[in-house]
């Protein structure tokens, strides 16, 4: 019965995405991403289609119905060259994978590109007017409240009924249950599949709150409601890497976007706030666990530490040396090293212990081609925002903050379905910068 319920919702979202345009289409898309787990499997044949993948392809199909417009947008996309570089890189990695035939390698490479980097362009092309930005921001703020209320419920009852329903429906592994029933730190995950990804998502949403508080006066009251809810959920998500990623993003945003006098005030108020909340035992423990990473490498806390990461890096480098140029192939980790997302099914060497970094994935699966093309892609995005930071600097600051948060997170703990929200928002901010700069050029002619 559960399968049919989720298929019904998927069809509603598909219709909403196909029939709408612009920011309304993006609202449908992001609503599905925020409130439906990627563990929801809609069908398994001819390909495995989870809810997240279904939404991405729905967005792509909607664009393919207007090929001329799509081609025009591709021609004018400011980062078309790095986007093509990363696509060619992934394609080469697939074509040089001798484990499969030509057609399967071509399909897998294209599919991997669409589910990761191409989301940047899909969201870019669907954002039409700068004035739509406020509508999108308001949606994220209201969605944050819903996510956080359910997150608090997770903590209060020490259970997640929706997550449990999905697990029973598909007989799938639950990360919430792993932390709730195991010996590790208890973590909440609200509507999403992984508590650590939930922490990262909250960091992104909290950053959007800070932006709105300073640059969207009519949303200030909503921000004052949303900020404490997100902050407490971030603490309850109980993961260090998302907290570090948020601090990185917030620092970048404050340094670039805000005036000096505001920075000074924030420093004073922020210091007083930190001193106040540090006296709360529950929060003090979380902060100490995060600081412990830098003091002892994480030796005093449960979970990953620097010694474990060093072991993983050495093991990944050993796999890299087998095929250093093109890597061992896409999905080599799950297919050949047999490291499963479900630890109960994993029979991989203990040295790998989860490959808790995107760096390890690049070393093992994509080799030098992947490392170089990824570097070109991300450096190009950073450069785009830096060069254009003097025009509407708050958007450049927000774009830089999000992309650096994303890199911090995936290097620190792996991607965990963070591609969609990160690439989606980055693509929208690139479009805003493009529209603002074009408007500026027109006003000078």
Describe the structure.
This protein is mostly helical. 73% of the residues lie in helices and 1% in strands. The protein has helices at 2-19, 22-35, 51-64, 67-76, 80-95, 102-115, 118-126, 133-157, 161-170, 175-181, 195-215, 220-237, 240-257, 260-278, 281-296, 306-320, 332-335, 358-387, 393-413, 419-443; strands at residues 41-43, 49-50. β1 and β2 (49-50) form a beta hairpin. The model has no long low-confidence stretch (mean pLDDT 88).
Detail the topology: elements first, then pairings.
Blueprint: H1 2-19, H2 22-35, E1 41-43, E2 49-50, H3 51-64, H4 67-76, H5 80-95, H6 102-115, H7 118-126, H8 133-157, H9 161-170, H10 175-181, H11 195-215, H12 220-237, H13 240-257, H14 260-278, H15 281-296, H16 306-320, H17 332-335, H18 358-387, H19 393-413, H20 419-443
Antiparallel strand pairs: 1-2
């Amino acid at each position: 019965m559960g399968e049919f319920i989720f298929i019904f919702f998927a069809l509603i979202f598909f219709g909403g995405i196909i029939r709408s345009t612009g920011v309304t289409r993006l609202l449908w898309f992001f609503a599905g991403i925020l409130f439906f787990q990627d563990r929801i499997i809609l069908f398994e044949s001819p390909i495995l289609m989870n809810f997240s993948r279904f939404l991405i392809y729905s967005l792509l199909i909607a664009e393919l119905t207007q090929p001329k417009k799509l081609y025009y947008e591709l021609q004018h996309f400011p980062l078309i060259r790095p986007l093509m570089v990363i696509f060619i890189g992934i394609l080469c990695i697939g074509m040089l994978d001798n484990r499969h035939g030509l057609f399967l390698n071509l399909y897998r490479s294209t599919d991997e590109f669409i589910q990761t980097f191409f989301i940047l362009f899909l969201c870019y092309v669907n954002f039409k007017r700068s004035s739509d930005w406020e509508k999108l921001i308001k949606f994220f703020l209201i969605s944050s409240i819903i996510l956080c209320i359910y997150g608090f419920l997770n903590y209060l009852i020490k259970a997640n009924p929706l997550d449990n329903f999905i697990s029973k429906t598909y007989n799938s592994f639950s990360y919430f249950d792993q932390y709730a029933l195991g010996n590790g730190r208890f973590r909440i995950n609200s509507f999403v599949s992984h508590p650590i990804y939930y922490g990262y998502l909250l960091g992104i949403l909290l950053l959007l709150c800070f932006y709105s508080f300073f640059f969207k006066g009519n949303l200030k009251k909503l921000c004052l409601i949303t900020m404490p809810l997100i902050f407490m959920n971030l603490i309850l998500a109980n993961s260090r890497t998302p907290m570090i990623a948020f601090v990185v993003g917030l620092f970048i945003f404050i340094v670039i976007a805000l005036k000096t006098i505001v920075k000074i005030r924030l420093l004073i108020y922020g210091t007083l706030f930190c001193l106040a909340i540090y006296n709360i035992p529950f929060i003090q423990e979380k902060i100490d666990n995060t600081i412990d990473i830098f003091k002892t490498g994480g030796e005093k806390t449960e979970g990953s530490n620097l010694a474990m990461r060093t072991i993983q890096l050495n093991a990944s480098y050993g796999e890299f040396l087998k095929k250093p140029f093109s890597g061992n192939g896409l999905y080599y980790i799950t297919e050949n090293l047999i490291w499963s997302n479900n630890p109960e099914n994993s029979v991989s060497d203990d040295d790998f212990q989860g490959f808790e970094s995107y760096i390890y994935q690049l070393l093992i699966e994509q080799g030098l081609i992947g490392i170089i093309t990824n570097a070109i892609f991300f450096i190009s995005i950073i450069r785009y925002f830096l060069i254009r930071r003097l025009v509407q600097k708050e958007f450049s600051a927000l774009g830089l903050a999000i992309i650096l948060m994303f890199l911090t997170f995936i290097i620190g703990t792996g991607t965990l379905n963070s591609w969609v929200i990160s690439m989606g928002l980055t693509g929208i901010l690139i479009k805003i910068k493009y529209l603002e700069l074009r408007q500026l050029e027109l006003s000078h002619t």
